[in-house]
DNA sequence: AAATAATCGAGACGGTACGTCTGGTCTTACC
DNA sequence: GGTAAGACCAGACGTACCGTCTCGATTATTT
């Protein structure tokens, strides 16, 4: 009982104050943007949220899960797939949208949260389940529509496909060895779709697709 | 003179004790492996190296640059390009070697150092200059040999090419959403080289190419 | 609020732990006796008291005020005036008692605290208010009784009188140029009371005066 | 041999650099005035004197003896006895001169040096031999002249006499519980000379003496 | 209505590590 | 051999947060 776990149910007693919860998440998100995860402190959050440290520790095990929840709450709404008739164009639009997001502070924070997950299994799991997997699932659906329409090979593991598309985006986001701009992402998608090797076929734009 | 910067030159006075320097770097590398960057402490390093804290602060601004230097000193020798007649095979071998390294603790530490670079420009610069850029330079040379031999397209920015190949490796190293094993890397290289889209050509390519 | 001042009142929050306070004062007094103020360290006190350094800094600005409070707490009870019918004998007894105390470690510590007060106004004030003034007040009352009984001149500032009596005691305590023994103190009192100059009268004074 | 003792004689090698010695003493005296003994640091002295720390440690065991020597060098010349035909007036003039000196920074420093002597026997000895004893010797001579002239009692230990005169001065210098001004010193001398008790004789100013 | 129970704020507590300062020692090159 | 420069080990400094622990006050449900 000593580790303060989030209560599953509490039938009696004073109910959880949702205003405090919101204030904490908000303060965390703000500070995360302002100073980054590295310099985030529970005391700072408590002060900014006008809340006692106890209240934070009561509901979140550690800085990581709190930061993560705050991050997810703030960022998740900003990325969503559109769904049109042309799956590859959907994909291209979505990747561009992600790229734009990752260029900024969101990318910086995300990177810190990933690093955090290296040491703490729970943070890692939460990051995957709460952020990565849902987005990959949507992306898979998009790719499957493309396969169904016969514009993509059907002999490759979807997970590998997605890695090939998103991997380089994350790579540049984290290493920052070059710009993560529209042109780069476009070139990258071309490469992923048509390969590096010399071949008779190019991306000859099936008439009407582009 | 109050900010303790690494001296550029010191013609007089007691010279720097290289034994202490080595001990510090060694202790740092060991602790980095043992507990990760997150739980690395200067006090711990000083104790393990048998050195005063001041000696550390005299030569390294902060934990980041020290950890980075220790990391580079320890890891750099472990990755090198072979050079044979078949550049694409060189590439494949090298990527597999990198993949193997990133599967383990090295990957975990690297990921923390990257996150660190998000907030501190100097750490970021040092990571790029000391680690990433040299490796990319070698990789570029390899790709250029392949282009010269006519097995790779010559109309694509080399930086984008390299991103397409290495990006997904790093992606999996950091997110750990799937195994970073030999089969994955092989599949990834095939994809990068031949593309996702449906084409008459497949990898066991035109006779005589391999 | 950044300078950690002793709180005036705290209506809310966890109340101050008096056990910790006592332990700190006790440890300080002990170490003061053992090693003197010069080698007193907050870390040492914290360790001996089984207390965190922060707890000390929370309630005492610096080593000086802590040492002083510990000193006063430990020493004050040891000196008190007796009150008999013969004020001059009361005085003589009290001065001898003080002399005995100052011969030992108490004197040594007191001397260090006085030196400390030279640089820090607050320490100085606290030393005067907490130690010196109360004792001088009592001594004044004693002298006034003597004056009322007609055995002491009534035309001299009481403060000067007291200085004349106690000054030489402190002088020898601090300079240690000679013994601070019973004989010395007796001789001193005779001198103070009857003067240095040649006069017909000697201490076993005119009949009827005592 | 490890404790660096001041060399007694050095028949060979480079002779001691007196310029360095002077610079060190001067810097020490200056810093002593400026920040007091408590915040005096060897590093500061070395920096201000343009001298290596080694050079200081070679010639002085510790901060105390250095500070003391610097103090004596700077202060000694400021106090000297005059010698006239009226010993008691000489005394009065000298005590006033001492009082004036002790009112200022000299007193503050002196007090710190005395405290220092509580813990370190050598410092204490040096303070007595170098400062106190010579001054007391001169004062004794003065008193003896007064005794020879028949204006002072000859049945009292000279040491006690001197304590009775100088003790209260030091007392006020160190405790600062009241002003150390001309009037105070005058009153004090009267008291010391003529006593506190009621007697037919007052200081009736032997004609021509005052 | 009272009792019970969990929440909340405030803030003290024992700790760990921080980055700095100074004390003394040593090592080197120069004079 | 003395000296300036400065690196070295050692250890205390005062601060920032950590995660835990009382408190008194508040807000519900259950008797």
Quick overview:
Four copies of one chain form a homotetramer. Chain A is 65% helix and 0% strand.
Query: Main sheet of chain A?
Result: none
> Per the principal axes of the C-alpha atoms, what is the gross shape of chain A?
elongated
What is the percent of helical residues of chain A?
55-70%
Structural class of chain A: mainly alpha
Our Rg estimate of chain A from Cα atoms comes to 21 Å
**Uncertain residue segments of chain A:** 1-8, 200-210
What is the average of the pLDDT values of chain A?
85
Give the DSSP E fraction of chain A (strand runs of 2 or more residues).
Answer: under 5%
How many β strands of chain A by DSSP? 0
**Which quaternary structure do these chains form?**
homotetramer
How far is the first residue's CA from the last residue's CA of chain A?
61 Å
Annotation field: number of helices of chain A: 9
Q: What would you say this structure looks like, in words?
A:
Four copies of one chain form a homotetramer. Chain A is mostly helical. Helix content of chain A is 65%, strand content 0%. Chain A has nine helices and no strands. Chain A has helices at 18-35, 42-49, 53-59, 63-75, 87-103, 105-119, 121-148, 158-175, 182-194. In chain A, α1 (18-35) crosses α4 (63-75), α4 (63-75) packs antiparallel against α6 and α5 crosses α9 (182-194). Chain A is elongated. The relative contact order of chain A is 0.10. The interface between C and D is large, with 58 and 57 residues. Chain A binds a DNA duplex (31 and 31 nucleotides) through α2 and α3.
